[in-house]
Protein: ATP-binding cassette domain-containing protein
Amino acid sequence: MGVEVTIEGLTKSFGRQNIWEDLTLTLPAGEVSVMLGPSGTGKTVFLKSLVGLLKPERGRVLVDGVDMVNSPTKDIFEARKKFGLMFQDGALFGSMNLFDNIAFPLREHTKKKESEIRDIVMERMEIVGLLGSEGKLPGEISGGMRKRAGLARALVLDPEIILVDEPDSGLDPVRTSYISQLMIDLNAQIDATMLIVTHNLEIISTVPDNMGMLYRRRLVTFGPRELLLTSADPAVAQFLSGSRAGPIGMAEEKDAATIAMETRNGLSAHTNKPRPLVPQLDPTPGMPPRMAVLRRKKRVSGMLHTLPPAARQAIEATLTPSEAGYPPGAPTQQLPGVPAHGPAPAAPAAHHGHPGHPGQGGNPGGQWT
Structure:
């Protein structure tokens, strides 16, 4: 099973430009989490900071007792072996065929024999659906195949934590659907902790167990997927609706006069309604069940009382009474028209509260982890 990743007070700047500050959250072990946010909010910088490729000015990233920010270099290098990192473009060597690209970490960081390396590489290529393409060069294959090759390379060292940077970048909707299913199937097979950085609405809606959002150099919130998908926070609602109306503009945030004008015209209220909740993807038939689902149910049922009504009701619709903590025979607070324990539809919007207040809006402290 994957390991838990604890982020405490993480702050990163480049010169005078503050990228984000005081990020605090926990990636639950073995679950799939997504970090979303408008372009330019430092999502890729966040990934690189987790694995120790960039050094934040303040804060800690704890992985099995090792601080990826402040520990000695040798300890960070050793802990980095627990990570697999898939970059946006696959980051493949153009002069190497796919087999050699995927084998590169094994040849670089292990003393395995070539026969062992071949077995591992071919197994990982089978997982991502690339068997038969091992002799091709990166320039001879599609963007989607390059991404899958990059993912296979991230898997060869048996990582406990997988970081995926915008897997949908440059892909059409059909290929994005395949990538989404691949993420779920991969988690079912290896039970690793996964963090996906994206702003693709399909991935956001169907893949993660947990979600967070970066905006205006802060973590808006992080918690169960239902918390963001039912959120009434203006920035979250605008982002999930893909609307121009709201605080997010071309330069990340709009001026107060523009927002006031939109409010007077009723644009935000009309456009940024909560998106209907769709069921999370299941593993492909024949795959093992996702152990993350059982662990998440147990973890989330223990925090139901801390969540806003919309998120709580959406989660309860997917739980049995005993999983939700109700005594046998007790009535559950079920949404109107929702079949018992079926997929959660759109829930009423939660009230937007002050940042950091449990279950309402900001959560810079990452309480719902």
